[in-house]
Amino acid sequence: MPDSQKILLIDDDATMSEMIRLMVGAFRRGTFSVTHAATYEEGLKELLTGAYTLCLLDYHLGARDGLELLREAKAQQCHTPIIILTGDSGEETDLAAMDGGAADFMKKIELNPRGLERAVGYALKMSETVGELRDLASVDELTQLPNRREFDRRLKEEWQRAGRFRRPLSLVMIDLDRFKAINDTYGHPAGDEVLRHAARLLTSQTRQMDCVARLGGDEFALLLVGTDRAGAEIVASRVRQLAATTPCRIPARNLSLEVGVSAGVATWPDDALTQGSLVASADAALYEFKRLHRTA
Q1: Which residue spans within the chain are E strands per DSSP?
Q2: Is 131 helix (H, G, I), strand (E, B) or coil?
Q3: 218 part of the active site
Q4: Would you state the pLDDT for residue 132?
């Protein structure tokens, strides 16, 4: 039996909850289960768990409304598709729901099993397409690491979290030594293999909560959450040692290329009081390391 996909219904009407369960149970394609949340607070908490395939959200939730919940969920990076349900018939309500980020809008008086199933199917397909586009916009195609745009987003997010919880945040800026010589000598396909090799090495030395990103060219960044300067220096040293002892092997060309890395560390709050100065401090530390070790 196929796994059931989970739908979250946020509605303060128990009768509507039972009606939605019956309609979903009559869907002809796919197997779905419905979880009911009766209040704004309970619904938002459940939605933000990310455990649901789709959300059906009542426009009116007592003293608060579904649009407010929709906006709050989107502000917290919730990507679950949301269909707004309402007893209102005005076009302004429809437009407000779509402008707020809803995947679709349905009037309760027009609800029926076939119509709801079509709306759910459309919302899930649209969500899949948007997710693919979001991945393309945030992932470096060559290395499959977060790209510069995603790194900037993560830096902003972790910076705010570090300030709120008063915990350190470290940034390690990294580039590959003599990467241009590799490209010039062995060609760009070999250079691409070296970049993928470096991405794997860096990822192996970080935790899931950290962010390893390719910023462009042969430049990478490690964003180390809750890590002080001493801890970040240990990570940087470990990465340098691992790279020095792990050549990039390209069997198809019978090549084994040595790949050295240079790294510079900066930490909040020791080295910077703004996001920009954290990046600038890590960059300065990287170039100072390269100067002292005469790498290029």
Answers
A1: 5-10, 32-37, 54-58, 60-61, 64-65, 82-86, 104-107, 169-176, 211-216, 219-225, 248-250, 255-257, 261-268
A2: helix
A3: yes
A4: 67
Give SS3 for 37.
strand
| Options 65, 175, 218, 271, the catalytic residue | 218
Segments of the chain scoring below 50 in pLDDT: 1
Question: pTM here?
Answer: 0.62
With a CB cutoff of 8 Å and minimum separation 6, the contacts of 173 are 219, 220, 221, 263, 264, 266, 279, 282, 283, 285, 286
pLDDT tens by residue, 104-160:
889 898 899 999 999 999 889 888 877 766 667 889 999 999 999 999 989 998 998
Gyration radius of the chain's alpha carbons: 25
Residue-wise pLDDT tens digits, 81-112: 999 998 776 666 777 777 778 888 898 988 99
State phi, psi for 28 to the nearest 5 degrees.
Answer: -85, -25
148-293, what's its fold? Alpha-Beta Plaits (3.30.70)
- Residue 138 identity (one-letter amino acid): S
CATH 3.40.50.2300 fits 5-136, yes or no: yes
* Domain map (residue ranges) of the chain: 5-136, 148-293
